[in-house]
Amino acid sequence: MKTLKVPYCPELDGMDLKSATAAMETIALRQSIDTINWPEFPYKPIVAFDIARGDKELYLHYFVRGLSLRAVAGQDGQHVHPDSCVEFFVRRNDDSLYTNFEFNCIGTCLAARGAGRHGRTPFTDNEYRKIRRYTTVERQTFEEKKGIYAWEVTVAIPFDLMGLDALYLPQNMRANFYKCADSTENPHFVTWSPIDLPSPDYHCPEHFGELRF
After folding, report:
1. Fold for the domain defined by 3-212
2. Are the CB atoms for 20 and 12 separated by under 8 Å?
3. Using 50, 70 and 90 to split pLDDT, how confident is the model at 176?
4. Can you give the residue ranges of the Carbohydrate-binding domain (predicted)?
5. Dihedral-angle region of residue 68 (phi above 0 means left; psi in -120 to 50 means alpha; beta otherwise)
6. What's the pLDDT tens digit per position in 37-77?
7. How high is the pLDDT of residue 74?
């Protein structure tokens, strides 16, 4: 099982996310999203994420460089996986439900809870407002742009949105990190922790890796 240790960086809590993004360059843990599980989708952009935690939030900074850029979804709750998209799925060890957090390159978020792909409970507007976001791409929707683009998204997700008590974090959790862009000229489905399934499917907690606190 793929594992990572999330560093504790309370200094991030007092920063705006642009400043936190710069700080994470040296204090966070960096990992690559570079596993191709399905040979029929061979394209692999350069994707890395930095991860750290403060006292109340989990910080994720994604860096992407690759072909095409798309951001059609402009409102939280809309499907963002057809766009240039990064994702984080997480589950407590003692819970049958997991939470998916999906962000396109302009910061639009889709998040929900459930035991599987179907019948998920979407986040409320109030829950979406709790997720702080910073992007290097202007927050304006657009159709696919051809070419090579580099972009970054940083998010701060409150622990309570993951079903956690920030004062009593578990020793570990299960999670996976993804990069996709289903409706672009070069669709791809790249993961951090490998997935052994016949076709692309991110809703598979049995293939999550481990986060250690």
Report:
1. Immunoglobulin-like (2.60.40)
2. yes
3. very high
4. 29-213
5. left
6. 999 999 999 999 999 999 999 999 999 999 999 999 999 99
7. 99
- Taking phi over 0 as left and psi of -120 to 50 as alpha, with beta for the rest, 107 belongs to left
pLDDT digits (tens, 9 = 90+) for 86-105: 999 999 999 999 999 999 99
Extract the tokens encoding 58: 């989990």
Q: What are phi and psi of 43, to 5 degrees?
A: -65, 135
Euclidean distance between CA atoms 188 and 182, whole angstroms: 6
Using only C-alpha atoms, the chain has a radius of gyration, in whole angstroms, of 16
**Cα 29 vs. chain centroid, distance in angstroms?**
15
Buried b (16+ CB within 10 A) or exposed e, 71-94: bbbbebbeebbbbbbbbbbbbbee
In this structure, what token pair is assigned to residue 23? Answer: 């700080």
Number of neighbouring beta carbons within 10 Å of residue 58: 26
Q: How many angstroms separate the Cα of 123 from the Cα of each of 10, 100, 151, 204, 206?
A: 26, 10, 26, 20, 23
**Where do we find the tokens 């860096």?**
63
